[in-house]
Inverse folding.
C-alpha cells in the first residue's frame, strides 16, 4: 500500500480537495504538510458544499485519520471553529492528530501580515492576510511558537516575550500601530491548550508505523508548484514548500517511502493575488471562465484571475515534483467554446522559449505562443470513461498529456465527487 503525494501543478485552486476526497475511501491517513488557513478547498458531496481551510480534505471521509503535520502553521481559533462547524454538520473530527512540532500563528502575525502588505504598496504580494508569511519567517528566525509550547506556560511566556520584544518595536516605530500585550497573547493561546492536548502526537512516527503496517497515506499539499517559496515564481509565492519535497520535510516521512506523486491541474489556468501570469485574459473570455468555473477564492472570496492553459507551467510541475500522474480538472468548464488556445511556449523579448524563463524579469516579459485546438459542444456531465468524452475533448486531453510529459490519470467533468473520468488507478496500477 503506497504513500501518495497530491500537489497543485499551477497557482493553486486546481481541485486538490476534490482529488483527495475522491481517493479518500481507499486511504487510512490524510496529511496536510504545508501552509495553513490560506488554503481553501471546496468539496461537493451529494449537493453539500464543504469549504476546508486548515483541516485536510480527508476529514470528510469516515474512517480516514486526518493529520496536521509539522510543516503546517496553525491558527488555533480557525482550527477549532472549523472543527465545530464540521461537527455541527455531522462530520466526525475526533480522530484528528496534530504534530507537536507544528508552528502556531499568533494573532500578532495576522496583524503584521496585513500591515506589511499595506506598506509594500505596489510591490505587495496580495497575501490572504492570515499571518502565513510572518509565521514562517519566525520559524526560520527561530522565534516561532510551536504546538508543544502550549503545554509549558513558562516557556510559552518566555517565547512570546522574546518575539514581541522585536515585533512591538516594528509595530510601534515602523508601522505606527499599538504595541501588543505579552500577557493577552499568552492567555489567548493557552485558552486552547486543554482542547488541543488530546490531539497532539508524534505524527512523524505514527505515519511511518502506518506505512510499515502496509496502510495507505495521502499527503495533501496546500497551494501549488508556482506558489512554492523555492520553486515558484518568487516573490509572488506563499512562504512554504508546496511541492512534493515539502511532503517529506513537512511530515517527517522520508523520501524513500514515497511511492507516487500526483499533481492536479485545471484544464485552463487561474491565479489569486499578484505576480506574472502569461496567459491571463482581460476580456470577455476571461469573464466567461470566471463565471462558468465559479472562479472566486474559497478563502478570501476574491475573483480569481483567469487565463488559458499554460503547458510549460505544468511541464515544470512534472519535473520539480517528479510526477507519476496528473489529474486534469474542470474540463467541463471549456464546453461550448469554439477554439481552445493552449500556451505551448513563450515569446520573451522576441526570442522563443519552450520552458519557463530563468529569471523573474524574463517571466514578466513572457508572452504566450498559442496553439489552437477545436472545442466541443457536448455536455460532459455524465462522462465516466475516456471514450464517453467527445472526440475533440479527447484530443485536447491527449495533447495536454503529451505536453505535460506525464500520464493524465483522471479528468474532472464537474464539481461532485463522482464527476470524474478515471483512466488509471492513482493509488497503484
Ligand atoms: P483546491 O484549493 O485545489 O482544493 O481547489 P479549490 O477548492 O479552491 O477550487 C476548485 C473548485 O473547482 C472547487 O469549487 C471545486 O468544487 C471545483 N471543481 C473541482 N473539480 C472540478 C471539475 O472537474 N469541474 C468543475 N466544474 N468544478 C470542479
Ligand atoms: P489552495 O490550497 C491560491 C496566494 C495568495 C498570494 C500568495 C501569498 O486553495 O490552492 P499567503 O497568504 O500564502 O502568504 O499569500 O499565495 N495563495 C493562494 N492562491 N490558492 C491557495 O491555496 C493559496 N494560498 C495562498 O493569494 O498571492
Ligand atoms: Mg483553493
Amino acid at each position: 500500500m503506497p504513500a501518495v503525494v497530491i500537489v497543485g501543478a499551477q497557482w493553486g485552486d486546481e481541485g486538490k480537495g476534490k482529488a483527495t476526497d475522491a481517493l479518500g475511501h481507499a486511504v487510512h491517513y490524510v496529511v496536510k504538510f504545508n501552509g495553513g488557513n490560506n488554503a481553501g478547498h471546496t468539496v461537493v458531496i451529494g449537493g453539500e458544499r464543504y469549504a476546508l481551510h486548515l483541516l485536510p480534505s480527508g476529514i470528510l471521509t469516515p474512517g480516514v485519520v486526518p493529520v496536521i503535520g509539522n510543516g503546517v502553521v496553525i491558527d488555533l481559533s480557525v482550527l477549532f471553529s472549523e472543527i465545530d462547524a464540521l461537527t455541527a454538520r455531522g462530520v466526525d473530527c475526533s480522530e484528528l492528530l496534530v504534530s507537536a512540532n507544528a508552528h502556531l500563528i499568533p494573532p500578532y502575525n495576522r496583524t503584521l501580515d496585513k500591515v506589511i502588505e499595506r506598506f509594500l504598496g505596489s510591490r505587495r504580494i496580495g497575501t490572504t492576510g492570515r499571518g502565513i508569511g510572518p509565521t514562517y519567517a519566525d520559524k526560520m528566525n527561530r522565534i516561532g511558537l510551536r504546538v508543544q509550547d502550549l503545554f509549558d506556560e513558562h516557556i510559552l511566556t518566555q517565547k512570546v516575550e522574546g518575539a514581541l520584544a522585536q515585533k512591538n518595536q516594528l509595530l510601534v516605530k515602523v508601522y505606527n500601530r499599538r504595541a501588543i500585550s505579552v500577557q493577552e497573547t499568552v492567555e489567548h493561546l493557552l485558552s486552547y491548550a486543554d482542547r488541543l492536548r488530546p490531539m497532539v502526537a508524534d505524527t512523524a512516527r505514527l505515519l511511518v508505523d502506518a506505512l510499515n503496517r502496509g496502510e495507505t497515506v495521502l499527503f495533501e499539499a496546500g497551494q501549488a508548484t508556482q506558489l512554492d517559496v523555492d520553486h515558484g515564481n518568487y516573490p509572488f509565492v506563499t512562504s512554504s514548500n508546496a511541492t512534493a519535497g515539502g511532503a517529506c520535510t513537512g511530515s517527517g516521512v522520508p523520501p524513500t517511502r514515497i511511492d507516487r506523486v500526483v499533481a492536479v491541474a485545471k484544464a485552463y489556468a487561474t491565479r489569486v493575488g499578484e505576480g506574472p501570469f502569461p496567459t491571463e485574459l482581460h476580456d470577455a473570455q476571461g469573464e466567461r471562465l470566471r463565471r462558468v468555473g465559479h472562479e472566486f477564492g474559497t478563502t478570501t472570496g476574491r475573483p480569481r484571475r483567469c487565463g488559458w492553459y499554460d503547458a510549460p507551467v505544468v511541464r515544470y510541475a512534472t519535473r520539480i515534483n517528479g510526477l507519476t500522474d496528473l489529474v486534469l480538472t474542470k474540463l467541463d468548464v471549456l464546453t461550448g467554446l469554439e477554439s481552445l488556445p493552449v500556451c505551448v511556449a513563450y515569446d520573451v523579448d522576441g526570442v522563443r522559449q519552450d520552458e519557463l524563463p530563468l529569471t523573474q524579469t524574463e517571466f514578466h516579459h513572457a508572452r504566450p505562443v498559442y496553439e489552437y485546438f477545436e472545442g466541443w459542444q457536448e455536455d460532459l456531465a455524465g462522462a465516466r470513461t475516456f471514450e464517453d468524452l467527445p472526440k475533440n475533448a479527447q484530443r485536447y486531453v491527449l495533447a495536454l498529456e503529451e505536453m505535460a510529459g506525464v500520464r493524465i490519470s483522471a479528468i474532472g467533468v464537474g464539481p461532485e465527487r463522482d464527476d470524474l473520468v478515471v483512466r488509471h488507478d492513482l493509488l497503484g496500477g
Summary: The pocket of magnesium ion (ligand 3) is lined by residues 12-13, 39-41, 298 (CB under 6 Å). The CA atoms of residues 228 and 241 lie 5 Å apart. The mean pLDDT is 96. The first strand starts at residue 3 and ends at 8.
